[in-house]
Design brief:
Blueprint: E1 21-23, E2 41-45, E3 51-53, H1 69-78, H2 81-97, E4 106-110, E5 115-118, H3 135-142, E6 146-152, H4 162-175, E7 182-188, E8 203-204, H5 207-218, H6 228-244, E9 253-259, H7 269-287, E10 291-298, H8 306-313, E11 318-323, H9 329-344, E12 354-355, E13 359-360, E14 367-377, E15 384-394, H10 395-400, H11 409-423, H12 436-443, H13 498-501, E16 502-504, H14 534-557, H15 576-579
Parallel strand pairs: 6-7, 6-9, 9-10, 10-11
Antiparallel strand pairs: 1-2, 2-16, 3-5, 4-5, 4-15, 7-8, 12-14, 13-14, 14-15
Helix pairs in contact: 3-9, 4-5, 6-7
């Protein structure tokens, strides 16, 4: 831990990164950096180090440093990835350029909120990014799934602006879904509405469909009485209809019930509980997969949380969370991701990788996608979920692999989406295989803590470990993780983004004022002439994220020391050598034993390799807000 003190670079810096350089090619254009007739304008990147982002609410220590020991640990053990990041970038450079594209970002997002992205680059906004709410993270941690949102819109939801909190929670859930997921929304009061396709089936969670659903959620009004029975009955009918046509996702099903807990019409709560229990069993038998019930009560009144908690405890796989203010939404929804991640930690999913629907990069106005893989500590049983690693790839490279079958950009995108769904498939277990005591541990993880437990009598040995423990031998955690000049979540002294991140090509310092004009157009990110196979492109990306998992295993589970050659690769469940699927194009860097004495480079000569990184536009307007 001592070596972690003042050793990390933040997303917002008052001083330069150690080896940053200005890149002006089309792939590196940033809208905020503009353009110039007399000079090529771009942004400053550093391919020698990564940068760290944490949500502002976790930066509670002096200088914007986190104080949560587990968050500190995640930042500290993941910093050793920089050595591998730089090596991987350099060895892959020729491969990607042979297809007319540049290497894109690589990153690790921990389950406790630490996000490390390579190459390092300044962020326009500080402390606002939470990777756990992004599709690449949720897809990598939960796999393809069916999600049913049953939303209480009765008149009582107007009290304390519960309807506002419900909308926020529902919008966040929908925004995290990917094209491999299916989604149904059932708003209800005295009667139930069904937001389905025109044929009455669940929606495929494409960007266009999520926009439709987001609009529907925004339009919800709190009016009328409350009928839980009607809402659940209608929701189950749609799921059953979709399953009959084999239009559901290939993995498990989550039913998310959001309410203020007051039932005023229809059958009583006993009948509601009986209906939910039986229909969940019926659907689980039909799909031969687990059906999980997540109940959320939205209120500042403790009385309204009683029934949603009881309902979750009445089924085999049920978890309850309460949402009383906006800051609790992430923690409340975390039980949904975490329980699904358990199924992906099984041996039959050792090769699972998730892909998200193509989105527009913020740099270069290019389109791309992300391949992601969950990271586990497999020394625990069940495997302990640590986070997700991801790697971005330009859609140009994927489109080139499709040949001449697609003649328009929309056809290319549709075909890419279809292929992405195919490669995002996971082999889900028929049942989660959790004991009642292990499930109790997952219930206790969310915002309510012990309140969410169902009263199962468990000993300490029977309860599963669902989050990493703080180091027992670490008496005092570092209080200053970032290098001098880093402002992790912004603050006094931080200059405007263009004047710390924009530059004229070839320079090594920010040089924005009086040179570049904001609003200039960036160039096109064109393909090369070759047509790689899509399998090879996918293999390169999947291999990269698997090896990144291996590196994290070496670092996190071996305290920075090299593991034996037969160690299980985290995220793959196979030996390191078997996890590495090197393509026959060019050698790739396998994660060598981590050097615990490694330190970030000092500012010396400019980097000798070309570099690239991007952040992303907000996907609330068809622009995915990625790293």
């Amino acid at each position: 831990m001592v070596s972690c003190i003042n050793a990390n670079y933040g997303e917002c810096q008052t001083k330069p990164y150690p080896q940053e350089k200005c890149l002006g090619e089309a792939s590196y254009q940033i809208d905020a950096c503009g353009s110039s007739q007399s000079a090529s304008c771009g942004g400053l990147w550093d391919t020698s180090v990564s940068s760290v982002r944490i949500p502002a609410e976790y930066a509670t220590g002096p200088g914007g440093n986190p104080t949560d020991p587990k968050l500190v640990e995640s930042i500290c053990f993941s910093r050793y990835l920089d050595e591998w990041f730089a090596q991987k970038h350099a060895t892959d450079l020729g491969y990607w350029r042979s297809y007319g594209v540049e290497p894109r970002s690589m990153y690790f997002g921990s389950q406790n909120g630490a996000f490390r992205i390579y190459p390092a680059r300044q962020s326009e906004e500080c402390g606002t990014y939470d990777h756990r709410l992004r599709p690449w993270y949720v897809a990598g941690s939960s796999g393809p799934k069916n999600v049913v949102l049953i939303l209480d819109t009765s008149g009582s939801m107007k009290d304390y602006d519960r309807i506002g909190l419900l909308k926020q929670a529902a919008q966040r859930i929908v925004s995290t879904l990917t094209v491999s997921d299916r989604i149904l929304i059932v708003p209800f009061s005295g009667t139930a509405q069904l937001i389905t396709t025109s044929d009455g089936y669940m929606f495929e969670a494409t960007r266009e469909n999520k926009e439709i659903l987001a609009t529907k959620i925004d339009d919800l009004k709190a009016v009328g009485s409350t009928n839980f029975y009607e809402a659940f009955d209608q929701a189950f009918r749609v799921v059953e209809k979709t399953a009959e046509k084999e239009l559901t996702a290939s993995c498990n099903t989550a039913i998310l019930f959001l309410t203020d807990g007051q039932n005023t019409e229809g059958p009583d709560l006993g009948n509601v509980t009986a209906l939910v229990d039986q229909r969940i069993k019926d659907i689980s038998a039909r799909l031969n997969k687990s059906v999980l019930l997540f109940t959320y009560s939205i209120s500042e009144d403790s009385e309204v949380h009683v029934y949603p908690n009881q309902l979750a405890c009445s089924v085999e796989f049920g978890l309850w969370s309460k949402i009383s203010q906006d800051i609790e939404i992430v923690d409340s929804l975390s039980s949904y991701y975490r329980l699904f991640a358990l199924g992906l930690g099984t041996e039959n999913n050792k090769d699972f990788a998730a892909w998200v629907e193509p989105y527009q990069f913020k740099t270069g106005n290019a389109w791309g996608t992300t391949g992601s893989v969950p990271v586990y500590d497999r020394s625990k049983s069940p495997p302990l979920f640590l986070g997700v690693v991801g790697m971005d790839v330009s859609l140009d490279a994927l489109d080139a692999a499709l040949g001449a079958n697609a003649t328009t950009s929309q056809e290319l995108r549709n075909e890419s989406i279809r292929r992405i769904v195919e490669y995002s498939d996971a082999s889900c277990p028929t049942t989660l295989g959790l004991s009642s005591c292990e499930l109790e541990a997952y219930r206790a993880f969310g915002a309510p803590g012990d309140e969410a437990m169902c009263g199962v009598n468990c000993t300490g040995f029977e309860v599963a470990q669902v989050q990493e423990n703080a180091c027992p031998t670490q008496p005092d955690y570092p209080k200053s993780l970032f290098v001098d000049g880093a402002l992790p979540v912004g603050g006094p002294g931080l200059v405007e983004y263009p004047n710390r991140a924009c530059c004229v090509t070839g320079n090594f310092t920010a040089s924005f004022m009086d040179v570049c004009v904001v609003g200039g157009a960036g160039g096109d990110d064109k393909d090369g002439d070759d047509n790689p196979s899509i399998g090879l492109i996918v293999e390169v990306v999947v291999a990269s994220v698997f090896v990144l998992c291996c590196c994290l295993y070496f670092i996190c589970c071996s305290d920075g020391q090299s593991s034996q050659s037969n160690s299980a690769a985290i995220g793959t469940g196979v030996p390191i050598a078997e996890a590495w699927l090197a393509p026959p194009v060019t050698p790739h860097a396998v994660c060598s034993p981590i050097n615990p004495a490694w330190v970030p480079p000092e500012a010396t000569a400019p980097p000798s390799v070309h570099d690239e990184e991007h952040s992303f536009k907000d996907d609330t307007n068809d622009k995915a807000k990625e790293p």
